[in-house]
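Appendix B. Extra example for self-study. Work through it before the problem class; the solution is given directly after the inputs so you can check yourself.
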Amino acid sequence: MSEMYELTIEQAAIALRVGAISSVELTQAVLDRLAATEPAVAAFIEPTPEVALAGAAAADARLRAGDAPLLCGIPGALKDLIATRGIQTTAGSQMLKGYRPIYDAHVTQRLIDAGYVLVGKTNLDEFAMGSSTETSSYQTTRNPFCPDCVPGGSSGGSAACVAAGSAFFSLGTDTGGSIRQPASLCGVVGMKPTYGRVSRWGVIAMASSLDQVGPFARTVKDCAAVLECLAGRDERDATSSSRAVPSYREACGRDIAGLKLGVPREYFIDGMEPAVEQSIRAAVAQLEGLGATAVEISLPHTSYALPTYYIIMPCEVSANLARFDGIRYGVPQPGETMWEAYAKTRGAGFGAEVKRRIMLGTYALSAGYHDAYYVRAQKVRTLIKQDFDQAFEQVDAIVCPASPTTAFPFGAKMDDPIQMYLSDVFTLAASLAGLPGLVVPCGFDAASKPIGLQLIAPHWREETLFQVAHAFEQSTSWSQPQNRHRLRVGQGGAQ
Amino acid sequence: MSEWLTVIGIEVHTQLLTRSKMFCSCDNNYAGDEPNTHVCPVCLGAPGMLPTVNAQALEYGIMAALALDCSVPEFSWFERKNYPYPDLVKGFQLTQYAYPIGAHGKVDLETDHGPRRIGVRRVHLEEDTAKNTHVTVAGESYSLVDCNRAGVPLMEIVTEPDARSSEEAVAYLKKLRDVLVFLGIASGKMEEGAMRLEANISVRTPAEAAAGVLRKRCEVKNLNSFENVRAALEYERERQIAAYEAGEEIQQATLGWDSAAGRTVYQRSKEEAQDYRYFPEPDLPPLRFTAADVDAVRAKLPELRPAIIARYEALGLDRYRAELLSQTRALATYFETALAGGGKVERVANLLLGDLLAQVNERQINLEETTALPAAGELGRLAQQWEAGEVTGPQVKQLLPRLFETGETVDAAKAALGIRVVGGADELLPIIEAVLAANAAAVAKVKAGEQKVMGFLVGQVMKATKGQGAPGEVNRLLAEVLARD
Amino acid sequence: MQMSREEVAHVAWLARLALSEAELERYAGQLSGILSHIVQLQELDVTDIAPTAMAVEAGGNVVRADVPTASAPQDEVLANAADIEDGSFRVRAILEESA
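Solution. Structure tokens for the complete assembly:
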């Protein structure tokens, strides 16, 4: 018999509706689990137990009244980049310590409307800049499957809390892989929707042309349920699409026989851990066994994705973070003159990685370099996009690794920015092309660290991702619920 | 050296009369309100906020572009102009840089030296900044930032360096202001900062002009009236000429205008110019305009002032009165409504420009709107009655204040004031005879052929009728009686 | 690609970041390293390639109707500011007032 916190969203939703449990009980179970695991995991910058219990009581009333949405009464967590009205939203930065937005992000509002229960704001790399959650200025989040290793990033707290069982689901953001890479490293399902599928309004911007919000969950169907709640047009985000949102849960369970899957040869590179390659190859074979056809494809500009990303992203970062001057919000520093106060506020409020990216972007956009860097990167972005366009003329989805490695030890890449950037090498290209990507657990290495399979689909084809991932998950035993015994945090695991 | 020629380019920023801000839905009409009361998270530049484009501002931009003979691009986008400043909430301003909403336009002027054409280089849309106010209290200096103005739609209109004198610059500005105000897209109020003027000026010799050579220019900012533009350009021309004639060089610089001291003041040099690092705003998809889109806006363009003036001249009015009657769109509309009542053009125009405007001035009424004026139809009726001899000039003067105050019809006002016209011979003849008897000397002069004294006698009769004598009848009967004697 | 300490200092000024001497040194090295990696984009011939600023476009002009809605209450607008006075944000003296 599972503990209450271990249920899937679907199971919990049924239990809530038949009256077997209340949301207050469910929430208390999750808060207890959070209390048990948090000392080791440190996934939350700020847990919100009081908000959670009040939300749960309200959800119970709504459940009793009938006709409550699926997520009503279900405890979830938000990356601390997502604005919550009246609740501290820090972006993992000292710059925003104590910042309480006067607005809820669009995605926060959608979850509130659905009756979710907020258990806390999760840790992240500062302003989502990083691949290990180590650049957070608040705390170090540990991988629940390997407490000596990073959870990945930037949405490391959101991935870790779902893996640990201290939330049924969480929201992260993905700019160059910040949902997919930590999902892979933490053994959970994570998905980045098509650019424009989910509103970015109220989500603190890193790189506007790349940022997307997406869910983490322990199963594919749970992930689909959350995306259904988030997706759709928001008048306040001009880049959000008015396309109809299909039922992603209905896609879960569709047969994949006859689907054509592309395996890009450029995604099997030197430096990739053998266990990762073996698991991915095995996963491809598994999908073929389910009736799909796998073909090798080429995405020839893959190796240019990293340099392209590291021009476009910092350029947008340099402008997006210009607003943090300590005047209207944020933590100001004193100075003799207005400009001194301005520069000291930013010098002290931002950490090393954030400053590095602001500098890089400012430089790349500055007079004399703009065309050589920014414009050229945008042209290469076109080539990368065309690679995918051509691939999707042949195949329904692309299957590849999400990360070249499993979770790595703390500090391993902190002194070498390029090495850290390389951990996103398999997720950047799809981000640049605005494509949806989903990561589903597909194995463990010898140290019991999770490995994730990345699926990439054409624009707006999230359904295909859920269809394939669900079929894979149901036919294998890699999903989080079946590997809870591997967790090394909380009472259930060997600490 | 004796002869120096002037080269002037002009930049105008104008706020647009939309209801909401450029990139958020805050109410645009903030004048006089408490600081930071027209602010939402978007125009506060709060983390995670995104812009959305005001459709009306976009249409106003296209209207201005078309009215200034600009081409409207098929493709445009907003770009981020990056510069940190406490009044710039996002650390960048959204503006149209590479793809302005209008380009390659022109404004034709009639000057004392004949027709002149000022090229309009570009018209683009952007957002206004917050307002900084400098405060010094007990020796301590600081600034206060009010975001009410942040994000108000702003349009910038930049000319080619085509103006050749301060008079031309001011003539251009007056014409441009008319265009914007008559389009209904801008208030044109410079004193409120809704329209802000900048001009750049350089001088050169005739030989340089012939060779198309330009010398270093200086830009004068913060000019808030046409008179300041004229004065600043005159001053700056003389300053530059004096420098060159003294063998000095002019450095390209940005200057301010100290209107109290009557001189330009140095602000910053070209070398201190910012590196704005423009790039397309990733939060806003690009904009595309088809020929049909542009034609649809063109169809909505209202008649502009030069066309109105031409139409009034065709009605038989002289240029001066045509200009006065079209000084605001509201007044022109008022005049035309009054005219539709059937009065003659001359009579209606003179009534409006004479007695009515006298009242307007006395009552300090703003002619941007005509709601405080008597109904235009009633003014037309009054003109018609005057024309028909149903009221007299003095009675018109008596009636108008009441029409302003009560909003009554002319007939009601006449009844209330007991105004009528004394027109019958049986009433007028005894009065005329009494006046002639009392003014024997004047009568003698008229009979001796001094016709101008006739006017005096008419005036005396009118006075005796308390202004109620029908002027036509008075003249006719007076002449008859004098001829009879 | 090498970035000098002076270039780093200039960029830090453009970005209004107060950096210590040690940071200037470190960033000069790290940014040079990143730029050396980025330089591989120069290998590609992009002559006839159109730039992509936005990977997915909604299609049609995305605009908002000009209808005002309520602004935030003044106390909320000012709620997160460290220094306020008379309903405004207070900052150190700005020498040049905005027009």
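Self-check: Residues 8 and 14 of chain C are 10 Å apart (CA to CA). If your reasoning did not lead you there, revisit section 3.
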